[in-house]
Amino acid sequence: MKIVLELNELVSVALSPRGKPADLLNLLFTGEIMVCVDDRILAEYRGVLARPAFGFNAADVVNLAAYFGRFARRVNPKPLSIRLEDPDDIMFYEVLKASGADYLVTGNLRHFKSIRDGRIVLPGVFGERYFSLHN
Asked: What pTM did the predictor assign?
C-alpha cells in the first residue's frame, strides 16, 4: 500500500512514538506501507523536523530523513491547477496524483476541502481502513 504522508502527520508520528502514530511508524519501518514523496516533500520533512522548537535529536532527524531518502517512492509530479486553503499543501496532492498512492494521510482535512477525493483521510481513518483489510 502506498501513502503520501503530509508534514503535520510526520511531526505527530515523531512526537508521539506510542499509540496510533507509532502504528503508522511501524507500518513504514516494516515496509508494509510505502511513503511517496518528491524532492519538495523531502526538503520539507528535513527542514521542519530540524527546527529547534520540536527538540528532536539532530542525529534522529538525519536518520529519519535518510530513511525517507532511501526507502520512499520518489515521483516527479506535474503541477496541478488547483487552489487549496494552504497553497503549501498542493505538493502533497500533486504527489498523490502522480504516484497513484492509495491515501494522502493528513490531520488537516480542511486544507483539502476544495478537493473531493476519498483518498484524502485522517490518520485514524487510514488506520481503520488499513487494519480492516489486513486482519
From this structure: 0.90
